[in-house]
């Protein structure tokens, strides 16, 4: 609708897949997975983020934020914003983090 489809490409693959490595670094990376995989993949995800790029992470609980933030700050990223999402079905607070290089 906004005539920018030529500027966007998409692909499917894990962070270590050839398609991901061959086409990086990326201006925007989004990951909605559990806390421990987010932490385990911090170096690999961060290495694919372009200078000035934005990383959005979710799939973690608010109480898990410090561990995830620390893992990505160790990779040179900076936390820009957090957003708490209330899930009424599970009665737990989910969080999304926005980081940048």
How would you characterize this protein structure?
The chain has 101 residues and is α+β, with helices and mostly antiparallel strands. Helices cover 27% and strands 39% of the residues. The protein has a 4-stranded mixed sheet. A hairpin with a 4-residue loop joins strand 3 and strand 4. The chain is globular, with a radius of gyration of 14 Å. The chain starts with 17 loop residues before the first helix and ends with a strand.
Using brief descriptors, characterize the structure shown.
101 residues; alpha+beta; four-stranded mixed beta sheet; 4 strands; globular
Order of helices and strands: HEHHEHEE
How does the overall form come out from the CA principal axes? Answer: globular
The helix-and-strand class reads alpha+beta
The residue-averaged pLDDT reads 87
| Helix proportion | 25-40%
Flag low-confidence runs: none
Distance linking N and C termini: 30 Å
Adjacency order of strands in the biggest sheet = 1-2-4-3
Rg over C-alpha atoms, rounded to the nearest angstrom: 14 Å
The portion of residues forming beta strands comes to 35-45%
Please describe the biggest sheet, giving its number of strands, its sense, and whether it closes into a barrel. Answer: 4 strands, mixed
How many individual helices?
Answer: 4
Number of strand segments: 4
């Amino acid at each position: 609708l906004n005539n920018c489809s030529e500027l966007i490409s998409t692909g499917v693959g894990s962070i270590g897949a050839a398609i991901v490595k061959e086409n990086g670094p990326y201006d925007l990376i989004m990951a909605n997975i559990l806390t421990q995989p987010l932490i385990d993949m911090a170096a690999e995800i961060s290495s694919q983020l372009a200078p000035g790029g934005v990383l959005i992470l979710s799939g973690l609980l608010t109480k898990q934020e410090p561990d995830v933030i620390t893992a990505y700050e160790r990779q040179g990223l900076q936390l820009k914003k957090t957003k708490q999402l209330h899930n009424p079905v599970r009665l737990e607070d989910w969080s999304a983090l926005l980081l940048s290089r």
